[in-house]
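During the reporting period the student researcher (J.K.) took over the structure-prediction task from the postdoctoral fellow and processed the backlog of single-chain submissions. One of the processed entries is reproduced below for the supervisory committee.
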Amino acid sequence: MDPSALPDDVEALRKLLVEEIAQRDAAIARRDEELARRDERIRILESENRLLRAEHFGRSSERRPLDPEQLSGSQGTFASFLAGPFASLVEQAERVADEKGVEGTVELRSPRARTKPKRRQDFPDHLPRVCSIFRLEKKDRACGCGGTLEPIGEEVTRELERVETAVVHEIARMKYACTSCQCGVKIALGPERVIDKGLLGVGFLAHVLVERFAHHMPYNRLESKYAGEGFNLSRSVLCESAGRCAELLTPIAEQIKKDALASGVVQTDDTPVTLQEDSKKNSRQGRVWVYRGLGGQVFFDMTESRGRDGPRAVLAGFAGLLQADAYPGYDAFFKDGTIVEVGCWAHARRYFVKAEDSEPVLAKEAIGRIRELYALEARAKEVGLDAAALRNVRQRESRPRLDALFDWMERTRGTVLDKGPLAKALDYALSNRVALTRYTDDGRVDIDNNGAERALRAVAVGRKNWIFFGNERGGQTAAVMYSLIATCKEHGVNPREYLRDVLLRIAKASDVRELTPYGWKAKWAPVVMAHQASVVERLMAASKG
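J.K. obtained the following structure tokens:
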């Protein structure tokens, strides 16, 4: 300010000075406010950056050590060789013999000399040969002329079988003709093929399905693996074989879905997948959904979007409790009260874990309180409480802690800035308070839907290897196989043994419920295991003789 422009009057000068100071203080206040907003924005961006780095490079587990004070007061080498590889072929041959009324044996054969030039689809010469031979019983060898049917050759079908290593499995059906009248030829019946005129036997098919959908091996990697073993199996053959098997097994997956919905309590979750649209590698995003029933029935579904049409089709006619992650697409299902929403505390806790970097004290306070709820669940699980007793414990112990936790959240929400990680965590929990509290009203319900998340992890892990589904049919194949394999894991069933046996039974099954993993475990697993044990015992005795 020009000194000459200052007034001579002292009072006027004082007034002017006061105004200048007030303007300067206001400018400083505005600057401080802008700096505070900038610092808060930097803090949020840094927190988001750390979260992104942690999601890509950090540990995925959220498990933390429990503070105990939080709940104060509250047979030889040959035998194993027989038991694994060849016993299954012997058991398979004897099963076919019983069903068809013929005699069945298994023998090792040397590769035969090739009389024609080798073609690409021919079986490798270096693989060992195991032959299942089916003969007519003596009573069926009588000819109408009074003579006897004598062996004149055999009709051989070859398929690759997986018996720890690949072998060429020859299925020989003996042909018979009368040596007296030279008329009429009879051929012994053999097993039905899983895939008519297919290249792969049932054991190899089960192996491929488990490698692809349980061990996450993409078809191109399996193709390379088999090429390294000296035989040529293209990824197109592997993919087509898996698709044909999935078509056969679809009724079992549908039965699993029915049983899951009939249980009255269903957990659900979803994850994105990439669908390739055409040969030019154009792609779009699809969605894989998982539904887990109260009895460990796990059903997968694949849709082309995350719209509610997918869940609506699966949940049609369902009545009961649906535990999910507060996805808005489910809201329409809860309006008439037929389906009741149950929240997931794992999702709620995850928001507070993400807020630890920006608001460590308050976030850890929330995490500690949530940990108390989980500790109560762990204690009840150790004791083995039934649903009614668990509900009583939750009402007595968990409900007061929940009320205190939500009261703390409401008080804390007014002290934190909007748009920050902690604000998001508090808003998620408070807006879903009723759903997050509902697990205390029913002892059948878990505190979270981690059971569904664990099943869905197979897709999350697998897509890092196979990257995308080649088409919608590939997605449907994966959904069927994931359903069967995940349900096998839930019930402690070996998926390879299960698939090998069920693929043989599915064509003539009268009750598909007996072929679900839990139905098979109860009805067929003891039969298969007993038969294999008998085979091993006889092979052991023969080897000693």
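The committee noted the following: Residues 78-113+122-237+484-544 form one domain.
J.K. will present the remaining backlog at the next meeting.
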